[in-house]
Structures are given as C-alpha cells and as structure tokens.
Amino acid sequence: MMSQSPDDQYYPVRILIGTLLISGGTLLWYWQRESTLLGAVIALIGCYFVWRACAFSTFNLPALTRTRTATPQRSAQTTAILFVISIAIGLLTAWLGKSDGQPILLLLTLWILSYALCFAAFLPIAAVSTWFSYLQRINRSELIAVIVLLTSAIVLRTIDLNGLPNIMQEDEAHFALRSLQIMTVHDWRISPFRYEETGHPLLFHYLQALGMLIGGTTMAGARLISALIGALAIPGLYLAARLLFNRRIAFLGALILLCLSVHLHFSRLAFNVIVDATTAIWSLALLILALRTDHPVNFALAGSILGLSQFGYSSSRLIPALLLLFVLLLWLSNNRKSIGSRRSWLTFAAMFLIVALPHFLNLALHQESLSPRLPDTLVWLNHDPVYGMPSTFPDALGFWLKQLSRSIFAYIQIPDAAYFYASSDPFAGWFGAVPFIIGFVITVQQYRDPRFGILILWVLITTVLGSVILIIPPQYQRLVVAAPIVAIMIAIGITALADALAAISRAATPDYPMPLAFERIGIPLALCSLICISELLGYFWTYRLAEPYFRDNRTRMVNELADRIIPALTGYEIWMLVSPNTDLSQSPVINFKNPTARLIPYRGTFQELLAQIPQDTDKQAVIIAPDDPSIEVLGSILALQLDFRRLPTVRENEQIERSAAVFVLNR
Length: 667
Known about the structure:
- Helix content is 60%, strand content 4%.
- The chain starts with a strand and ends with a strand.
- The chain is mostly helical.
- Mean pLDDT is 84; it is low at 651-657.
C-alpha cells in the first residue's frame, strides 16, 4: 500500500516504534480505565511516529476515474409519464396504509409496482442488458473469495442463536413480540410503512415475522433476519473497499468485519440496528461503483438501497448526509469529472424517493417526526437530575468534555454504557484498537483524498450525533452504523504495519529476502488472523453464560421467569406482586416466550391478596418481585396461612442480586 520515499528510509522503523508505543498506551487504558492520561500521552507519542512515517510515504492507489459506459436512454416524455404514474401509485400505497386493515400483499404489490415503473422510466431494457454484460467481467477468484466470506459470516451469525447469547434483552423481546403480533393479532393487516409505538419502522418487524415463520417463535427465529442482514454487510464492505483502495485492504477489512465482536453481537440480536450498518456500506459501495462507471443501473441500485436504509434504526438518518458529503469531497478535490451526469443523479434521486415515499408520507399523514425517539435521548431535552441538561451540572464545560471523551474513547477504551453489550471490549476490540489508531492517523494524514476524507467524517459524525449529544455515552447501538468504516481503518492500519515489517525484514536480511507473496499477503493475513481469532474467542467466552450479559438484574430475572418458572406453572393462575421499581408481568420477554400464560399484575396490599386468592383450587401461584424488601416475611405468611411452598430459583451469588420469590399452593 505504501511506497518508500527516497528522502526517508527510516519510515518502517517509525511505524514500528509508533505501534509499540500505541500498544503500551492501550494496555495502560485497559488496566486503569478511569485513568486515561498516562496511556493517552504514550499513545499520542506513538501516533506522532506513525504520522511522521506517513509524511514520507506515498499511497499507491488507483485514481477515482470514471469509465463511462454508453447506455440507451428513454425519451424525456416517456420518462416523465412513467415516473408520474409511479409517484401516483406510491401515494396510493401510503394512503391505503394510513389505517390498519389493508392486506400486506396489496400494499407490497403496489409498492413493488411503483418501484418497477420508476425503474422502467429511467432504465430501458437495453440499458439493463449492458449492465449484465458488465457483470460478466467480474474476477472469478475475487467472487469465490467473497462467497466464502459471506458463507462464513452467515455461519458465525446464525449458529446457536438460541444459546449465544442465551437470554433475551427486553428490547429484543419487544421487537419479537411486535412481529409476533403482526402475524397473530393483526393477521398481516397493518402497514409496513408506519412507525410502531416506540418509534421504529414496521418493515423490519415484517421481515422478522418471516424469520419466525422459518425458525419458529423462538429466540433463534426472532434473531434470524438480523443475522442474515448483518452477514450481508461483509460483501458490501469488500466492494466498497475494493473500489476505494485495493484488493488487499478489501479482503482484510471484510475479514475484520466478519469477526469484529461488536458487529457480530448486534447481528445476533433481534434488533434493527444492524440494518443501518449493512445498508450504509452497500449504499456507499454502489454509489462509488456508479461514480466509477457512470452506469444508470448502478445509480438506480444505490438510490434504492439508500431508500431502504430509511426503514432501519434512527442512525439511518445519517446515511444520506454522509453520501452527500462524499460527493462534495469529490467535487472539492477537483475530481469533478467523476461526479456523474445529471440524468444519472436524477435516476439516483428518483429511486431513493420512490422506495422511501410510502414511509415518509405515512409519517406526514400521522404527523410523526423523522426520528421520534431522538428528543427522548438528547441531553439538553432531558430533565432527569442524573442525566439532565448541562445547566443542571455545576461545570457545564466539564460535562461536555466528559461526553466528548467517552464517545471518542468508545472505539479504543470505554465499554458500552447501555445494556446491549457486555463490559468487555471497546468498539474496535481489544487487539483491533491498535491498528485502528494507526489507520486513523494514516487516514487523517491523507485527508485531502476523498477516499480517506469520507472515512474520517463517517467516524466523527457518527461519534458526535450518535454519542456525544445523547444521554450516557457511549451506547454502541448508536455507533454500529460506523462498524464497516472502523473495519476498513483497522485494515489500513494492519496493511501499514505489515509493509513496515516487510521493509525491516528486507533491510535486516538482504541476502535472504522473503517471497514477495508472503510480504504482500502472508504478513498482513497473519496479523489480521490474530485479531480475528482474539475477537471470536473473546466474544464466545463473554457470552457463554447469561450472567455477564446485559448487566442488569431485571433482564436476568424476566428470562428466568419466562424460561423456567412460568412453563413449570402451566395452567396456574399467577399473581405477580408488583413493587414500585419492578413490574415483571409487563415484560415483553415473558409475553413473547409465554403468550398464553395467565399473569395477573397485583398492586394492592398483601392482606387483600390473601383474601382474593381462591381457596378451592390448587392452581394458584404468587411471584414476589426481587427488589421487594418483604420477600421473606411475605413468604412466611403465604406458607403459614395458605399452605404455599417456595420454589427454587436462580442461586444467589456475589454478581447477581437476589431472585424473585415464587410460591405455589402445597396441595
């Protein structure tokens, strides 16, 4: 990737010294996470050495030139007529989906018809034929490598979805329960273009429901679609990095993303955040391909995937802005000839509009925000005394510095503050953090090149909008959209380090040079393999048990109730004693795993409960919330007055708070 400048033959040594210093700084961070100063100073010195090395090197990258392909075009009049008809059908689709009751097949048929007409408006059959002839020139060895990577990604993301992670977070269960209700309660008669109650587009729920038709109403069935969508990001990253850089960075980046624990983890959850990462990298890849070829089909595909991205998580709103920034960087870099023709961009915009039109119109018809949950998470709009506005803190500057530092260090030091990820890895992984820092320094060094500039902006904008301005950063689910870009930066860092090691080897043993293939492929692949193996071992070790997962007692409790206790009480009338802080009966985990269970949330006095429990049947059970201070007293009363006996639950230990108490009639 890098070539030596005659002005400085010591650049490999500088990179090696910088790598050692960065490694030492990150080790200090891992040992003392709350004390970052010493590790930061050492790591910054290492970054300086890497910076100086890159200042005396050049990057042998192909130019982002455009190879124009002559394609037939429809007449302006035909294009306008077909496009107006497609818009009309899209408006009809949105109007019919305004209220419940329309069959999903009708809405999807109209949506697909609208898309097909828009596609035909800008792309005659002859243009599509030239695109297929272009596909025939794909390198078969690369295609086989991508297929192997994709197959590996599917295996890693679908194997043992019921047991790894082996408990279900309540947000996962909310998605799964909503998808189950689409099949049962709504009978597939609710618009997929609307938001559900907590502010997520319903289209993902429909896909998740299809996954449960295949895998059953289990955790594996609910997680299946996320796993497949996550796996699709790997070929998307390969294509993007191949077009931006070269095959070596593309393969290393795809391999890193294949094993990156944070991407692997969110691919294995029944949660829509992984949609953003996959659609973002595919939108970028197809846009670069469109700019390189100026083929209208590629522009149409890029606009289509960008439109689909808007049906994902809230971070999907960043994707169109980031793509526009990339095009702006190209324009500002005097590479204006590679921007594409006006008709191509019109095709791109039309396909984006027609795909997302029913979704955006349904938001307008229901007067909903583009990001309905965002105001609930912004620090300046939340008045909680703990996580409130900066004005509630005596030192507002200190507050924002903490928000910024925690968000930036999320990639290399600070673990997830939410319940979606264990307190083990930083975002880039334990060992991936070092080449990520190297790759970031190199990227900043080459910022004038739009290919590097978009990587910087992608990470920084995601960091600010996805973490800094939100409550309790970092929350990894809001950063996953940047996971493919992080993998590319890690690959850049690995490549630079591998080239430096090869150069040092040539200088040290000039009479016995290593084979060129080993220098180009063997060394970077060995470094990449060490990172991938450590990521996989760390992930499977972390999530082998339920205890380290989703570090809150409530999640463990509701899974224990749903998996062990309630199935053992089949046919019982279950009274759930609700404490002020814990209402286990309303958990979507219980409702999803046991939809027919008869749970009665009880908020009255204990004496009134004793009078309400029927005495003429033995199918009665009482569950007392774990944070109720009167568990033992209430249990004694149940045992003495109503002959209840206590069932065994999860054994208490130092890591886990005490379990809920379960009592059944001893008859």
